[in-house]
Every structure is written in structure tokens, then in C-alpha cells.
Automatic annotation (TrEMBL):
It is a single-pass type II membrane protein. It comes from the Eukaryota. Residues 293-315 are annotated as: Disordered. This is Adenylosuccinate synthetase. It comes from Genlisea aurea. Signal peptide: none annotated.
Length: 315
């Protein structure tokens, strides 16, 4: 619940009744790029905006908050928890990037509350929060479909698109090319419905489908092969012209800000890989997960014996 005078997904959108309150500078009605004129009633109502301006859609909670509320593990797919003293306790869950981007957008000086002046539109649909709901709830039984998560995820994004088209005028301004979507789960925007594909996709996986046109995931619920053609269409998983590959979430405390500043002579390791290599290296039974890339690295650089006791080439 928001305090009186405020509303929106983060209780940051002011209503008429809040005009007499002292607003944070990043929330007040702002001038764009530069101040115009000196006729202001109150100094706090004037500030400078930074372009590009981003409008964050205030979607119904079924696309975000309710999914977060229903997770079975409190640390699942979020970038932070709070301790008893309300201090941030960072998580290490890979899919926390979706929440991290969301938080950053909401608090950004580039954010605008006026969609008419926006350069980009951020659509807060969170597929990673949907994973445990679909996987662990009996009313969404896997007996109905082995690939139930992929179906539900595509349908969720399609419903968000339908809501935007019905409630907002901005999509048709550019046929959606200025809309930003996040697909944080393994194979990402492969399962995006065809209606949203014009937008900018933020994904962890830049597969252009030039060689692999089918799902290669080892996690069956992520398999998007069986998504109906009329829902997914025939797009790739990633378009390097418009989409962006982003890193998975990492606990900030574990990241050294100076690790990339080491001089070249101090870098003694040519290549480092830490990941599961499949059955030849006593790993998970599937070898398709990385489209053979991990196995190729194991063959070329592996330092652990396979089941036959053979080592990969040493470098």
C-alpha cells in the first residue's frame, strides 16, 4: 500500500493530493535537457532531465508483483533480501538481473513519468519469477504439457502486449521498436511472442539461430520447440542489430572492481572455464545444453580426465 498522495508500482507516482508535499527531485515534473525561464512558483518543481528518457509501464501485478509474492523460496530470482535491520543482503541467484534492472529503471534520473516525452519504454514482465510457480504448483500440472513453462511464459508476454495496446498509445508510435523487454531465463527471448519481437530484448543468451534453430536446453520446461507457431512466430532468439546480451546477476560483494585493471604481464592464465561438461566429465547426462561449446573447450583445454582416463589437450 502506498501513502496517501502516491500510487504506482513503487509508490513513486504523485497524485494531485501530493502536490503540497516536498518531492524528491527525480520525481518532480521536470524540464527536459535545460531549464526554461525563471517563472517558477517553487524551486523544487524545476530540475534537469537526462536523455534518453525512459517510461516504465505501470502494469497490473499479475505481470510482476504477484509473481514475486508467490515464489516458494524467498531468494528466488531477486537480487537482494533484507536482514533484521533492513539492510541489503545480496543474493547470488543468476536470474536476479531482472529485478536489478527493474530497480535501476525505477530510480534512474533518466526515468520520466510522462510517456509522451519518452525515448524508450520499459515493460516490467518477469518471466524468471514465473519458474517456481509453474514448476511447483499442482494446478499447473506438467501432465498437461511437459513444456508448460515455455507456454505460460509466452502467453504472459502476449497478455502484457495486449494490455499495453489496449491501455496506452505508445506502441504504435514506432511499432514497438522503442520498447525494452527482459528475458532473463536460460534461452531467453526464444520464447517471445511474435507481437513483441520488434522491441529491444535484454537477454543472457545471444543465439542468432544460424546453426541451432531448435531449443538446446537441458531443462525441459524451458524447451520452446513446441510453442505454437501462431504464438511464437518464426523469429530467432537474438537479433544483434537491436538486442543486447547482459550478464547474469552476480553478488556485488564478490566482484573485484580492479580485476580487469591487471597489467597483461600479470595475467598468466590464457583461458578459464567453470561449468558442467556433460557425461564424458562425470557431469549431467545431457550434452546439448551448450550446443557443444563446453565439450569443445573440454577437449581443447581440459585438465580433468574423462571416464576413459584421457585428458584434454594442455595449453
Amino acid at each position: 500500500q502506498c501513502r496517501n498522495g502516491w500510487y504506482g508500482m513503487d509508490c513513486s507516482v504523485p497524485s494531485i493530493s501530493s502536490y503540497n508535499l516536498e518531492w524528491p527531485k527525480w520525481l518532480v515534473p521536470l524540464k527536459v535537457d535545460h531549464l526554461q525561464g525563471n517563472n517558477t512558483d517553487h524551486a523544487s518543481t524545476v530540475a534537469v532531465k537526462k536523455r534518453p528518457l525512459i517510461y516504465v509501464y505501470d502494469l497490473p501485478p499479475e505481470f510482476n508483483a504477484l509473481l514475486l509474492q508467490g515464489r516458494h523460496d524467498k531468494g528466488h530470482s531477486v537480487n537482494r533480501l533484507y536482514d533484521a535491520k533492513n539492510r541489503t543482503d545480496w543474493t547470488s541467484i543468476l536470474y536476479g538481473s531482472q529485478m536489478s534492472i527493474y530497480e535501476s529503471m525505477l530510480a534512474s534520473p533518466h526515468r520520466t513519468l510522462n510517456g509522451d516525452e519518452a525515448d524508450y519504454f520499459f515493460v516490467p514482465v518477469f518471466d524468471s519469477w514465473m519458474i517456481p510457480l509453474v514448476d511447483e504448483n499442482p494446478h499447473l500440472s506438467k501432465k498437461v504439457s511437459l513444456f508448460v513453462y515455455a507456454h505460460y511464459t509466452s502467453d504472459l508476454y502476449k497478455k502484457a502486449y495486449d494490455h499495453i495496446m489496449a491501455q496506452y498509445p505508445y506502441w504504435n508510435r514506432s511499432s514497438g521498436r522503442d520498447h525494452i523487454w527482459t528475458f532473463a531465463w536460460d534461452e531467453g527471448a526464444c520464447m517471445a511472442p511474435k507481437e513483441v519481437w520488434n522491441g529491444v530484448m535484454l537477454v543472457h543468451w545471444g543465439n542468432t539461430n544460424k546453426k541451432h534453430r531448435n531449443s538446446t536446453t537441458a531443462y525441459n520446461d524451458d524447451n520452446w520447440d513446441s510453442i505454437p507457431q501462431d504464438l511464437r512466430g518464426n523469429h530467432s532468439c537474438f537479433d544483434p542489430v537491436k538486442d543486447i546480451v547482459i550478464p547474469v546477476w552476480k553478488n556485488p560483494k564478490l566482484i573485484s572492481s580492479k580485476s580487469h585493471d591487471r597489467p597483461r604481464e600479470d595475467r598468466k592464465t590464457l583461458f578459464y572455464f567453470n561449468g558442467n561438461l556433460g557425461p564424458l566429465y562425470n557431469g549431467r547426462p545431457e550434452d546439448r545444453y551448450s550446443m557443444g561449446i563446453r565439450q569443445k573447450m573440454g577437449e581443447e583445454f581440459g585438465s580433468s580426465p574423462n571416464k576413459e582416463g584421457k585428458l584434454g589437450k594442455q595449453r
